[in-house]
Amino acid sequence: MILTNIMLAAAGTKIPGSIFGMPEQASTIAESIDWIYNFVNWICVFFFVLIVVVLVVFMFRYRRRAHIASTGGPTHNTPLEVIWTAIPTILVAPMFYFGFKGYMHIATPPENAYQIQVTGRQWSWQFDYPNGAKIFDGTLHVPVDRPVTLTMTSEDVIHAIFIPAFRVKQDVVPGKRTQLWFEATRVGVFDLFCAEFCGTSHSQMVGRVIVYEEEEFEQVIEDAANWIERVPDDKLHLAGVRLYNQCQQCHTIDGSPLIGPSFKETHDLFTSGGTQKRRLKDGSSVVVDEAYLLNSILNPLDQITVNSRTGKPYPPTMTAGLGKQLGDRRRLALARMIMQLDEVVTPDGRLRKVTEEDLDLVENPDAD
Amino acid sequence: MTTNEVTTPIESEPARETNYLNATTGIMSWLGTLDHKRIGVMYLVSVLMSFFVAGLFAMVIRIELMWPGETIIDQDTYNQMFTLHGAIMVFLVLIPSVPASLGNFVLPIMLGAKDVAFPRLNLFSYYLWVTGAVMAVAAILFGGVDTGWTFYVPYSTTGVDDRGAMDGVFFLTMAVFVLGFSSIFTGLNFIVTIHRLRPPGMTWFKMPLFLWAIYATGILQVMATPVIGITVLLLAVERTVGIGIFDPSLGGDPILFQHFFWFYSHPAVYIMILPPMGIISELISVHSHKHIFGYRFIAFSSVAIAIFSFLVWGHHMFVSSQSPLLNVVFSAITFSVAIPSAVKVFNWLATLYKGSISLNTPMLYALSFIFLFTIAGLTGLPLAVIATDIHLHDTYFVVAHFHYTMMGGALTGMLGGIHHWWPKITGRMYSEVWGRIACGLVFVGFNVTFFTQFVLGSLGMPRRYHDYSGPGWAQETTDLFHSLHFVSTMGSFIMALGFFLTAGYLIHSLFRGRRAPANPWGGRSLEWQCPSPPPVYNFAEPPHVGDCYDFSVLEWDEQEQGYHWRRDLAHDAGEA
Asked: What CATH number has the domain spanning A114-224?
């Protein structure tokens, strides 16, 4: 690691964390995991240096000088063999023990932990909070200094939650529930990855963990539970923009088909007012209107669309679970976003930024 | 007629002109041959061609990862690239690499036999390999495979309705099934050969250590491979007929698949690494003209590794949701593999002590094996410690670790073996100067490529990622991973240059190389007692079996540029 650190330092890049390249520490277990990692690695460094030094010294000291057999040297030495069999055996014992102790701690969630339900699906995360809040944008909001348990399952293939700064990882398996717990030690934003290969957009199944002070956390979760209800009907298409990041792995807004049809294409079919219809896998076609859009979000496999460029049907990747979990109002917000796409996309083809003011969500200062 | 000449001991040495390469001619004399040497050469050529293809895929992957965003290929193509890179490297290259190619060529000669026990089965194994390779190509033509070489369910069984069951995944799993039988038959053949065809005097503890390694490997091949056969067959049944075995939506258990898969694929790691370890034992001893140190410990460590390797598969599944008790037990047993591996390294070092070390190309590969395998073994420790594995699992740390094992270990060992036995196989010497330069390039390039990935993984970069930027990514994370990926790809260019150079001078030697003497390195095992290249049935007379690591009986012949028996001992040798 040191070698690479030097290389990178030369290239002007700073490596955070420990000498062996661990990321920043942000959970109660991180420090002890790093201690074990350093303990094991220093033993490794010792043996590596020992072996390489001996190797290099022998290479030069006993370099061939004439075409003769070696001048002797032992062919076996049983006490030596026993010693160098025993030393590694003794050394791996504490390694196992520390790993075991650390693991038992990781594998045992505290009973009073804050509970969050996690659903993985290709290729987004859904986080359900006890107060009914459902987070779809890949952001896991958690309080600082309080144990949190994630109870996780998958709707399609195996995924895995990996939060490097917390040193935790657990596969998310369809057909069963797995658990993972941590206690964040400081406020901040941290990476969250899917670590088990799950298909096309595996590398985009990434999110953030945001750690808050307790009161702020309560407020965020409270807002998350009901913000969509407070958005007035005529602003719902803007609310859809906030929900779009769970769609973007498969649906573009610029007209190019990805895993599913582009929202732009759907929007154009909608604005044609029924003069252009959408072709379906079974050969029929359908008018794109609000009812069609809502049904396609709720039951995506009902009417599978044909890719207008290749003529082939889109893969049946989108699970029904996503649309169902969104709830009526979020589905409506997304349908409105597609219908009014020209109002949410800027002239240079990007989504416009949507603020709290845009959604009429700013609290009246006198209300408190 | 040729056969007659060779087997009748009229002369002390058969004439150089009749050897296994020119005894018969024509393409059919190769395709239908039962000579273990020709089969070995056909394997070698086929395996190296597969290595070239899978290596190209690796370069595409590395170039894609040089910059954030889509560089040269899209997500789906990338997923197919790493799947095919892995599957070809594992099933078509590494599993058959040393045993089927070099093992086939060298094993009977080293043993003092005329061929393997079942020459027809040997040829059949080769054609099974070819069939498997053709099916792997079919997998690419039928839409490709993007499951990773591990075929984890339910990803490998989803989308069947859309793609049809007879797609790339089906063909690749069937390729694995067929290749498995190729491997089983090779292992079986070698086990029987070693048991039954040892000539008088060749006792178990007189066998060269390479044969011990091949023997231990044979046991693994015969005992572990049927499990992967059954597993991929069940997977194919699930895909085609829809019977629920692994897919939870059909009532199956996806974790069961992982248990089955790793029950084979962990021992498979040792099918790949044990034979190269055997090569290293030969190379270290021969090129330092020094008796191997701790023969029995090295021999038994091969067997110990083979046995332990069956008991540790669960360490691939620490975060899979298998029970915590299993995790702890598998972690404990995993450490036991570290010990025989360490014993081997210490014995190799002790062999160098007071040796007469020639730093020629095969020896440089052997020394670089020790360096790289030491890193491979030591970085296995934080992966065996459960608490740290949870962080490192499925990151580039694991990618770096198994590339150090499989490429730094297995492939470096094989390259050492190819350079060691090249004069024997082809009858030609290659350029030493270019050999050393290429070895240096591969060594440096390899370390730059993969050492960087230890840091990358430790920092949290997950494996099998097409990209490290995008809407969900933090900019600082993207920048950090970018700089490390860039360095890693630079290393892979250096390594690729080394490989092209190697291919160049080896091919050149076939046409322009100096004729090889019978014993250019001063090796003492039996293959160095027959001419280069060997005659069809290897030995005109029953070979003289002695201590295969006693180099004091050889002397250098300046004129011949090779070694032969000391004149003053020649008489004794004939008598013994």
From this structure: 2.60.40.420
